[in-house]
Design a protein that fits this description.
Number of strands: 7
Shape: globular
Strand order of the largest sheet: 2-1-3-4
Number of helices: 11
Distance between the termini: 21 Å
Structural class: alpha/beta
Oligomer: single chain
Largest sheet: 4 strands, parallel
Strand content: 5-15%
Radius of gyration: 18 Å
Helix content: 40-55%
Number of domains: 2
Length: 243
């Protein structure tokens, strides 16, 4: 499989990318790193369509070659995977864009598919120990019930009692990152924090890097990514990527 960490994971949460590699390799999946660094969302969401199209065109060419060489593309940021699957196809003409979209996977959805793959040995499936009680915040871009909450499903399979809080953190796409929108983000974020606090849990888990930053800013406690929980529960060893 080919991993596209995206600029958010690469520069703001590299531990999430390392956790994905640990979980994948401990379940027999060979990993290669994509040469693409950004899905192009900053330009798309700012309305700079010409620049986005240029970036997306180059990305599609690179990703198509990598997928043909190393297998399906796996992306730990749901929002970024969505840009590749939907927006790149909308703005980049040609069969390669469709090919890339068809082989692009949200990392948590992909790992859940691995777990349920009947051709895999049961001992290699992703079932590991996890903290007993987890309050789980899915990405705002997750679209249940179509997409569901695969990260919560994985942690449930791992033995955790998972309570999902389906409340926006206020980030949206890049909208929530603008200083002028901070008052509205603050109202939405406080609602989320109230719901997280009301449940109470051993660990707060969030699957979106930017949403997690909002939660940490409001509570002082950094949520953990579900991939980190899965990687920790799977154990560590000399073959793990360096921190």
């Amino acid at each position: 499989m080919t991993i596209l960490p995206t600029c958010l994971v690469e520069h703001h949460a590299p531990q999430v990318g390392r956790a994905l590699v640990r979980v994948a390799e401990r379940n027999g999946l060979d990993c290669s790193l994509s040469a693409v660094r950004c899905c192009g969302a900053p330009w798309l969401h700012a309305g700079e369509i010409e620049h986005f199209t240029k970036v997306a065109t180059a990305n599609v060419a690179t990703l198509a070659a990598e997928i043909r060489r190393s297998g399906d593309l796996v992306v730990p940021q749901t929002r970024c995977a969505e840009v590749i699957v939907y927006d790149s196809v909308a703005y980049v003409a040609g069969p390669d864009a469709e090919f890339v979209a068809a082989h692009t996977n949200d990392a948590l959805e992909y790992l859940l598919q691995v777990h349920h793959d009947p051709e895999r040995e049961p001992t290699s499936r992703i079932v590991v120990g996890a903290p007993s009680r987890i309050v789980y915040h899915p990405s705002d871009r997750r679209r249940p019930p179509v997409a569901g909450v695969p990260g919560a499903d994985l942690l449930t399979l791992a033995g955790a009692d998972v309570a999902v809080v389906d409340q926006s953190a206020g980030m949206g796409v890049t909208w929530g990152g603008r200083a002028s929108h901070d008052p509205l983000v603050a109202v939405t974020a406080e609602r989320l924090v109230e719901r997280l606090d009301a449940i109470g849990a051993d660990v707060v888990v969030g699957e979106d890097v930017r949403d997690n930053a909002v939660i940490e800013e409001r509570t002082g406690v950094a949520p953990r990514h579900p991939l980190e929980i899965l990687a920790d529960a799977a154990g560590s060893g000399a073959d793990d990527p360096p921190e």
